């Protein structure tokens, strides 16, 4: 029987061996690829940080070599491997941050299971793979990750998908399907357990951009689902709410409070329906006036013809001018008739002048 320093009694049938002792297992003995879970993030400002520049991680690592008993060991200050390490990814100013060119050309942040710091049971932290250069546990490097068995949000991989690539991080997804079509999707910030963060705007969840194999570039509005096949996209959204394009009902709608400008935009657009209503009213009135003028000219022509006959014997010289004036009045009446007819024909076909598929609003 053996008594440990903390009072634990070890039966005589068991022996003692240190598992994953930091710096006590030799400089080149921890050479296995191991998996674990991130339990804590150590920021450069933390007094425990070793690099003072990058995020480091305390990882609960599962040790099990062959048939030997397994145990969880905490690896402190683990760093994240970089696939393209080097200085040529720097922006030259040393002020790289989110959304800028980072010093390391590929970097990201892992998620810690904050509710389980110091505990070894599985939680919601990033599940990672680690290796120790030269077997030194003090310098453990996170080289990759493994799927979380608790993740049921992703669809089961279907053989019909063929070749594909999919990357989702903090609610943003990138997917490439078997046809080489690329889709970018924004779902909104997520928590460590994979559910949508309360601070995320659900109204914007599902916005995306797809590059089709036929060369089309399709913008997708909030749908709440990630399309495996970009061809299912039916909604387009750009800069909502200032501009929204929707094809959900088979039509394209543009809604913008600031107005729509095309080219140099030096001329105002015509409000077709509004203009046509005013024009129809004016044409109807003009046709009515033309008909009245035609009637008046017809009456005038008759009176001039009668006057020419009446004065023929008393003043022969006055007859021909009156007869000519009467003929001119007849021609004027015919012109007014043609004018009225043209206006009536125009309005009779007005339903064909305005498209029933396109519309413009000014408010």
Provide a descriptive summary of the structure in words.
Mean pLDDT is 76; it is low at 20-27 and 224-235. This protein has three domains: 1-92 and 102-150, no CATH class; 159-246, no CATH class; 272-352. By secondary structure, it is of the alpha+beta class. It has helices at residues 272-310, 319-348, and strands at residues 2-3, 9-10, 34-42, 56-63, 71-80, 127-131, 141-145, 165-169, 172-176, 182-186, 207-211, 217-220, 235-237, 244-246. The strands form four sheets. A five-stranded mixed beta barrel has the order 3-4-5-7-6. Strands 8-9-10-11-12 form a five-stranded antiparallel β-sheet, with no helix packed on it. It has two helices and 14 strands; from the N terminus they run E-E-E-E-E-E-E-E-E-E-E-E-E-E-H-H. Strand 11 (207-211) and strand 12 (217-220) form a beta hairpin. Helix 1 packs antiparallel against helix 2 (319-348). It is 19% helix and 20% strand.
Short description:
The chain has 2 helices and 14 strands. The protein has helices at 272-310, 319-348, and strands at residues 2-3, 9-10, 34-42, 56-63, 71-80, 127-131, 141-145, 165-169, 172-176, 182-186, 207-211, 217-220, 235-237, 244-246.
Which secondary structure elements does this structure contain, and how are they paired or packed?
Elements: E1 2-3, E2 9-10, E3 34-42, E4 56-63, E5 71-80, E6 127-131, E7 141-145, E8 165-169, E9 172-176, E10 182-186, E11 207-211, E12 217-220, E13 235-237, E14 244-246, H1 272-310, H2 319-348
Parallel strand pairs: 5-7
Antiparallel strand pairs: 1-2, 3-4, 3-6, 4-5, 6-7, 8-9, 9-10, 10-11, 11-12, 13-14
